[in-house]
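Good day; I would like, with your permission, to put a structural problem before you. A protein sequence and the structure tokens that stand for its backbone fold form the material at issue. Thank you for your consideration; the sequence and its tokens are set out here:
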Amino acid sequence: MPMPSNSHIGQRLSYDGALCTVRYIGPVTGTSGTWLGVEWDDSGRGKHDGQHGDVRYFSCLSKNPNAASFVRPSRPADASQSFVAALHGKYNAEAVAERESQIQIVFFGTKPAEEVGFDKIRRQLARVEDLTIVILDGARVAVDAAPGDKGVKETSPLIAELDISRNLFEEFGQVVKICQELDSLRSLRLKCVLLCVYRVHDD
């Protein structure tokens, strides 16, 4: 499983589906080695608020006294993905599974009266370019497109309603890049997205 190598302050990580932001990297008194001090999106998940013993190592955005934890950099993290990969991974698979569960083959005696071509159905359903409502809540999305992906507009140009809450964006600029590609976008939901760097890059 992926390890959070080259850790940095503000890094967004997911551990077993629980999202967090790195607030501290370094030693902790009374222990050996390096730790990551993280603030959980679920502010009741942790064990402290960035203070351990008499030492404050970092502060959290949340006022919850249990918003933070220390984790080892070697702890396996969930893999992040691009917006484009998340679209394909969710909607192609879900659509095929839903339609295949509804398929019925009619029999006369022991011979099928009609057989459905599964490959044809898969081709018909694997059309993310026709989606108008997209929900990628908690999909571990970190960027708009990865190397080798098609662009957002090429992949799904008709999206009008989009939910990308609870993901791994580190900069608001990544959200802007996605939205700029969607000419039909009318509604955007960003619940619980803890963006660590509030700046938009001009390319």
In short: The helical segments are 83-102, 118-125, 152-155, 172-180.
